[in-house]
Amino acid sequence: MNCRLVEIEAQRKLSYAWSVPFLDTVVTFTLTPTASGGGTRLSIVQSGFKPDQKREFGGARYGWKMMGGKLVDLLARIP
Questions:
Q1: Alpha carbon distance 39, 23 (integer Å)
Q2: Which of 40, 57, 68, 75, by CA, is between 20 and 30 Å from 31?
Q3: CB–CB of 37/21 below 8 Å?
């Protein structure tokens, strides 16, 4: 897998592009303060899927849901 950083904004955004023989995508992590000011919202977007890459999209969707769930569980354990 080849990976390169595309964009970095300190304490706000990180984007990287990665490619394997059958897929080139960009993943962007964005942090924004919540409206109440007491927390932070994490947004993860993976783009670059072509219409004929439904299987790859489904695999990525499954993977992000699984990892997102693990992150939620981990953060719930922090006092």
A1: 34
A2: 57
A3: no
CB 6 within 8 A of CB 15: yes
Residue 35 confidence (pLDDT): 86
Mean pLDDT value of segment 48-62: 95
Which pLDDT belongs to residue 27? 96
Q: In what order do the strands lie in the sheet with 40-47?
A: 2-9, 13-20, 23-33, 40-47
State pTM to two decimals. 0.84
Residue 1 CA to residue 25 CA, distance in Å, equals 11
Domains of the chain, start order:
2-76 (3.30.200)
Q: How many CB atoms lie within 10 A of CB 62?
A: 10
- Residue 11 tokens, joined: 């304490």
